[in-house]
Amino acid sequence: QPARAVDLVEEESGAPGEEQRRWEEARLGAASLKFGARDAASQEPKYQLVLEEEETIEFVRATQLQGDEEPSAPPTSTQAQQKESIQAVRRSLPVFPFREELLAAIANHQVLIIEGETGSGKTTQIPQYLFEEGYTNKGMKIACTQPRRVAAMSVAARVAREMGVKLGNEVGYSIRFEDCTSERTVLRYMTDGMLLREFLSEPDLASYSVVMVDEAHERTLHTDILFGLIKDVARFRPELKVLVASATMDTARFSTFFDDAPVFRIPGRRFPVDIFYTKAPEADYLEACVVSVLQIHVTQPPGDILVFLTGQEEIEAACEMLQDRCRRLGSKIRELLVLPIYANLPSDMQARIFQPTPPGARKVVVATNIAETSLTIEGIIYVLDPGFCKQKSYNPRTGMESLTVTPCSKPVPLSFQASANQRAGRAGRVAAGKCFRLYTAWAYQHELEETTVPEIQRTSLGNVVLLLKSLGIHDLMHFDFLDPPPYETLLLALEQLYALGALNHLGELTTSGRKMAELPVDPMLSKMILASEKYSCSEEILTVAAMLSVNNSIFYRPKDKVVHADNARVNFFLPGGDHLVLLNVYTQWAESGYSSQWCYENFVQFRSMRRARDVREQLEGLLERVEVGLSSCQGDYIRVRKAITAGYFYHTARLTRSGYRTVKQQQTVFIHPNSSLFEQQPRWLLYHELVLTTKEFMRQVLEIESSWLLEVAPHYYKAKELEDPHAKKMPKKIGKTREELG
Ligand code: CDP
Ligand code: MG
Known about the structure:
The structure is a single chain. This protein is an alpha/beta fold. α7 (192-201) crosses α8 (221-236), α10 (285-299) crosses α11 and α16 crosses α18 (511-518). The termini are far apart. Residues 122-123, 214 line the site of magnesium ion.
């Protein structure tokens, strides 16, 4: 008998003996892997780490997510799909039998709430039904919004394929900085933010016959604002059809908001999913994920695996770890295809997750919560859910926005019960599935909140307030919100826009504010671009703006070349700070002829650079509209730094004896260790964003002089508050004294 028996709790009926046997096999699997590791270790001791005995994760089967279908195992749908024609697949979707009923309901009601299990065909089918029904006659268009860029792109691609048209012709997508539509495009998938911007050029959406607000349950800021605007437009345009589509959550609230609009329910179709919890909490969930994936791979019958992580960096790290271990295990295990999916992943890479798994292999898709409801990947039988998510939060008292990223060892914030169940549901689409939760059943009950707070209540509103003001909506306090934002947040947004010069003292949009609204970026970034005119450095500022918009994924840091990668990064450092480092990277890349080889040699992510180049081109194209001419600072970086300060004077910190404090709110903050200024600790600086991990870190910092703040924002700063009472007792001085003493 092994020292540590696998503990299994069987609550449901079923064959306990069978389960017990599987898990004993799991241990066997782990043991054989362990030998594999030793083999590998003898060649290259650095990579010893593969499934040590104490590293196997113990799960306890606790509950079952009920299914609507019998748990008999059908052929995996990837095989089925390959055989069937695309039209047959369309006919097999849960929404299909309801086609006529749905179209009749749409014809009879102006607003319809549509509720259906993820994967039932809402996003891909309903716009097509409307197209077939003639809603796009006379050049009218159908909009379908998605909270996520990736979803908009991939869904549009799928629908174009189903309709047999080229993407960008009849079917297209439009996301920020990327427009894949043409004159002919009548089915437009777009991010909710893009439809919001459509209101600027077409306030009554006159060219649209149908607007479908999809994934409404996500309650993103933009979706919430769309609700209010669309409800208003619908009153004036009785012929406009409004569809609100959502997973099975919240639909009653949507119905109430839209004057008791009817709810059309598409019955679900799901196989049961067994839910397993870990016996004990896992300290390092990334590591636990990798181990569990391999455990599932070696012990469980065929079927693909879906893993939920919180963001790109984590996903890339996990994929790298997985690939690494698979390589080392070589032919000891069957082939495991490791595929990432996250917001910034280029489309060619995205497409790979939808390709059928080759026979004999297994696919593991490592995703952000985009795969919770926005995307359906066929063939998933196993879901691995560490129970974390990334949350933006906002403190309206201090005006600080921070992205809370969960460090491996510190389990906050956990995700939500609603998410956890959505995630689990992904396992039961094609057959009975299993969901492994990397937390305990106790944690599920006691530590996971029930549902998420809508974004509008935990983000800054500068952007949307500016947009609403540009749409002529002045009385924001009485805007028709599904859930109103906190009063302080709204007030602060107005104040901030006033400080940036976008609003006058009456709260009316200024000329400069109108220009800022033209640029599809945050008000501070817009302001920085506008200010580049005054400081004659728009070329450089455009680059900085573009690089900031992809900022967290510029440098590549492979595990086995950390030292080289870090050296390469340091080589880009310029005095002044991180914004100039970004400028330097881009400039050198441009000089290399935008070469991918150059990126490779310098540990720079080519894909991110390519995206930065796209963004830069788009922004450059908008300069004329906002009356900024092209100019270069010719190496006079003070001008660049001043222009950045003109936009970001809100985000400033100064060094005090007890570390950095934000200038206005006096909050303690820290320079991120990745920053080029980490060691230098300049007295005054500005930051691009705050990220809360173990501490409140400032990411992308720039050294400034306090006098610049008076120059760019005299209405905001008083000379007195920029004086430094401790100037004579700075740490440097103290250091010298000690030296003298020594
Ligand atoms: O919107 P909803 O979750 O109800 O379903 P959908 O996104 O319209 O997906 C319907 C079907 O299309 C699913 O079976 C997906 O697997 C498939 N699909 C796909 O193969 N590729 C995509 N990019 C999107 C959907
Ligand atoms: Mg959908």
